[in-house]
Write a structure and sequence with these properties.
This is DUF2116 family Zn-ribbon domain-containing protein. With 174 residues, this protein is of the alpha+beta class. Helix content is 33%, strand content 24%.
């Protein structure tokens, strides 16, 4: 807010409609042309340099000219909300299944970091939180061997409760 010769002037830029509202509080004095010209110059200046507010909480920002959020908490809250909106159309069950498949993939990466095939106990994978029910694809070889994949990592069930973990670039192709 600004005071010009007993005139209260405030400008509020509404970014979503790009309009400017002016509020004048008159005290009974007549305004000269120079006062009006000064107000017009201020409006133009205000349009060129609008007040910046935090995208999350709306607080006025101070500091860097490219600042978008007032602090890390607001930035994280805003980005989490945006991510939820993009995933909001997903059924909660589907989102849970996707997380389980991602966890299965991470477990296989942990047990075969170099991508080399490895034999491991089924119970060891279960103890790590692996769910055999959830996977992204199935591959059947010419020898009728069945491989289940979570993205590029897969497994084949062997005898005696053993699991063969494998890596396949072909599973990355869509």
């Amino acid at each position: 807010m600004y005071w010009f010769h007993n005139t209260l002037f405030s400008a509020n830029l509404q970014t979503h409609t790009a309009t400017i509202r002016l509020t004048f509080a008159y005290t009974g004095y007549t305004r000269s042309g120079s006062d009006i010209q000064l107000i017009i110059k201020l409006i133009q200046l205000y349009k060129d340099h609008p007040e910046k507010n935090c995208r999350n909480c709306g607080k006025e920002l101070h500091g860097r000219s490219d600042q978008v959020f007032c602090n890390d908490t607001c930035r994280n809250t805003y980005n989490r909300g945006k991510r939820r909106e993009s995933q909001g159309s997903l059924d909660p069950y589907i989102a849970k299944v996707i997380r389980v498949i991602q966890r299965n993939h991470q477990i296989m990466i942990r047990y075969m970091p170099g991508g080399e095939p490895r034999v491991i106990s089924r119970y060891e994978l279960i103890d790590a939180g692996f769910h055999f029910k959830y996977f992204t694809s199935i591959s059947i070889t010419r020898k009728q061997e069945i491989y289940h994949y979570c993205f590029d990592r897969g497994w084949k069930e062997l005898e005696n409760g053993k699991i063969l973990l494998v890596f396949s670039f072909e599973q990355l192709e869509i």
